[in-house]
Every structure is written in structure tokens, then in C-alpha cells.
Design brief:
single chain, 234 residues, alpha/beta, 6-stranded mixed beta sheet, 7 helices
Length: 234
């Protein structure tokens, strides 16, 4: 089975000022966000990745470029509209503090599966298209590079949370329990019987163990021995 690293873009000017950027064009990483993307790229550099796929929005493509630039041999990279930000419709480019007073806000928090943003898309539709895209790319990477391949998908907070919820077998109504910070890495492997989630919202630590591939087969009873230490010790 291939393994996907789900990377959220680094912090943006909109994040820093409390705006819901949505699909607003021209929202770039701020200075901290560029530093975050560079640190994440450095972590991932220990793993030869087969492919980098990104949301088409600038903050994601900027993060993806940082990851590609730190690879020893630059992997192929592309954008996929299915990984773009949720279409928040009339909520786009408004302050989160103002949106919290909207009648729809409590439903976004507790019953997102029933939410359709005014003039935008449903959160259920957002999850369906994102999960389908990840599984499609994952199957293609595995078919081309083998079951030990690792690839990267750079996207947005709600998108990655919805993908993780699916991989964890969680109902979408529970996805607000997940945190996905700027430039964080979450790790999912899709197997024949079930997905495996190796990490969520990771912003530090060694990733070189991924270069050896994620073991396939049944889950170890009792939790197993874990990943190898960075220095190769058992």
C-alpha cells in the first residue's frame, strides 16, 4: 500500500488576521507561514516522495514548491481542483468572529454533514470530492511506484480533517474533534482491508522511517514495536 502525507499549507495573511479566506485569490503565506513550510519540507526531505499534488490555491502551491525543492530528486508535481478549499460561498473573506454569530455556525460545529454554505457547497460534498481525489491519486501512485511509495498531498484544514475523518471511520459530524494546524503532516496508508492512520497534526519529529515503507497486513495485536529509531536501533 502507498502512503500519503497530508500537508496543510503554512500560515497565511488571512489566518493571522482571523479571516475565512476560502477560495479568495492572492492569499499567500506570511513570513511565519514560509518558515513553517520550510521546516515541513526539511522533515519530508528524509523521505523520497513519488509525487506532490496540491490544491491550486497559492498558499498550497507555495507550500508544495518548498517540499519539492528540498527533495534530492524533484518528484513530479501537479495541482488538483478536487483538493481545493471548501466553497464557503457568502461566508468567504469574512471574519471568523462575525461568522460565529451566524445562525448556521452551531450546525457547522456540531452537525457539519447537514451544512450547505449559503451560495457555496455542502460539507458532505466537500468531503466526498476530497476523499475520492486522495484515493484516486493513491491508487495511481501505488500502481506506478509500488506499495512502498510515499506521496504528498498539500491542501487545507477542513479538507484534510474530512479526509482523516473518513480514514478513521468517523462520521463527518465528529470531524471538528480533529486539529490540523498550519504546515502539519498527517500520515495515512490505504490498505485492502482498511486505511491506517499513522499520525495526525504532526509538526515535528523524524520521518525517515517512512523511507522503508509502512508494513502491510493485519494490525499487530498489542500495538507492535513501533517505527525504527532514527539511528537505526531497534
Amino acid at each position: 500500500m502507498a502512503t500519503v502525507l497530508l500537508v496543510r499549507h503554512g500560515r497565511t495573511t488571512a489566518n493571522a488576521t482571523g479571516l475565512l479566506a476560502g477560495r479568495t485569490p492572492g492569499v499567500a503565506l506570511d513570513d511565519l507561514g514560509r518558515d513553517q513550510a520550510a521546516r515541513t519540507a526539511e522533515r519530508i526531505a528524509a523521505v523520497p516522495v513519488a509525487e506532490v499534488v496540491s490544491s491550486p490555491l497559492e498558499r498550497c502551491t507555495e507550500t508544495a514548491r518548498a517540499i519539492v525543492a528540498r527533495q534530492g530528486a524533484a518528484p513530479p508535481s501537479s495541482v488538483d481542483d478536487a483538493l481545493t478549499e471548501c466553497n464557503y460561498g457568502l461566508w468567504q473573506n469574512r471574519r471568523l468572529s462575525d461568522l460565529a454569530t451566524e445562525e448556521l455556525w452551531p450546525r457547522v460545529q456540531s452537525q457539519p454533514s447537514a451544512v450547505v454554505f449559503p451560495g457555496g457547497e455542502s460539507m458532505a460534498g466537500m468531503q466526498a470530492r476530497a476523499v475520492a481525489a486522495i484515493r484516486r491519486h493513491d491508487a495511481a501512485v501505488e500502481a506506478m511506484h509500488g506499495p512502498g511509495a510515499v506521496w504528498v498531498a498539500v491542501s487545507h484544514g477542513d479538507i484534510i480533517k474530512s479526509i482523516l475523518a473518513d480514514a478513521l471511520g468517523m462520521h463527518l459530524d465528529l470531524f471538528q474533534r480533529l486539529e490540523v494546524g498550519p504546515a502539519s503532516v498527517s500520515i495515512v496508508s490505504y490498505g485492502a482491508s482498511r486505511p491506517r492512520v499513522a499520525a495526525t497534526n504532526s509538526d515535528g519529529g523524524d520521518l525517515s522511517w517512512l523511507a522503508k515503507g509502512v508494513p502491510s497486513g493485519d494490525a499487530p495485536v498489542g500495538g507492535g514495536a513501533g517505527v525504527p529509531a532514527p539511528d537505526g536501533r531497534a
